[in-house]
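Hi W., the iron/sulfur cluster complex you wanted:
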Amino acid sequence: MPGGQNRFLSESLETRIRQFDISQKTLLIPVMAPFTGRLITASFRAFGVDAVLMETYKGLSLGKEFTSGKECFPCQVTLGDILHHLKMEKERLGASFTPERYVYFLPEADGPCRFGMYNKMHRLVLDQFEEYKEISITYLSSQNSYAATGILPNKQARRFRRLAYAATIIADVLDRIVWRVRPYERRAGMMDAFMEKALAAMASLVEASGADLNFTKLYALLEDVASNARSIIDDRKPRRPRIGIVGEIYLRSHPESNQDIIRLLEQFGGEVVTASIGEWINFISYDRARKLRRKWRTTLKNGDYGFLGDVSRQWIAQEIEKRYQAWRQEQIYHIALRRLDIQPDHSIASIERKLDNDRHFSFDVGTEAGLSIGGAIAYASEDCDGIINVFPFTCMPAAISSAVLKPLMNRMKIPYLDAPYDGTTQPNREAALRTFLYQTKQHLEQRRNGKAAK
Ligand code: SF4
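Structure:
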């Protein structure tokens, strides 16, 4: 590659993927989990940011056109989303399309995985279009627990983080309300229609009153939603086999990419619960606190007292954040649980305990594999009748989870299925899901008769 082009690339990666004040920009947000996407967009809007949730999956062919096929599938989907959105904006605005106005928002995570590279890859593709070169990419990073200090004025950043966390947990709870009620609804379509209105009301409320961090109104609405959703359940319908979904966060949360696996499983006779988005945010805080605790011990052991105060402050701040999140999450779930028996979320400490002192896996390895393995064991011990690991084809942490979970679930006599996706339609997928559902029904029968292994 000629030196000039090399220089341009490194300059572009340094200057056009950055954290800066986005208050005056249009922030383009890709969808991962639909409910979370709606409420996070509303949270940005509550602080005056012109945030827009982009349509998803419409630009998959564009995403595939500008990738080689070796990238992770979520990278192709999100790339397609941004290219499609910009194409539509260009067509809509014509000569008044101003690229400087837009900022593309793509959070990242560090660790032994490719997610941290998505925004660099997307930068390289945007730079291939003369008209997209001035569109900046911004991010929140797991390195500082997704703090917003780099993208919002200091005063707002902390408040935004508080609101965004609560909005994420509320979105998780709304998902769980749907999964609890929809399989037993009195009339087909009732729950989806009800939730569409409830979600719109929640998003409006977050946008209108979220910035003052007085959550009373949000909680009142959430309780109302849970209570009304309860009335949609037809109590004559018997409880179905319960299926726990774990796996890669994007694929398990993005219905278009996972070919609507939750709805399909419900159609075949199951009740599903998927690992939450809050779980990942909590894991990041938990992991950071663990690492800081270790750093503190090493600093003390080495007698590096000049440094000790600094490490202590960081560790205490992270512990406070971790505990705040646990308290807030419990509070929000408690409100819904007063009205409806949704599946509570697993604490990260409880997931780590399920790893049995690192016998099954260790959080030290990093990635989502520890969460998937510990989460699957937790579901299995909470009367789930089957576990599905949903992931992008070739996903490294999911392959690790699969290698550990398959024999483990076999020993526990819990039906288990790997469900990899890459955007193609697999002819035997439906047969595999139906067979899996049949096994879960047998497991439920055995459980009711007291024969299932624990
Ligand atoms: S978790 Fe899987 S899909 Fe996501 S970046 Fe890592 S390897 Fe790719």
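Residues 305-337 form the longest helix (33 residues).

W.
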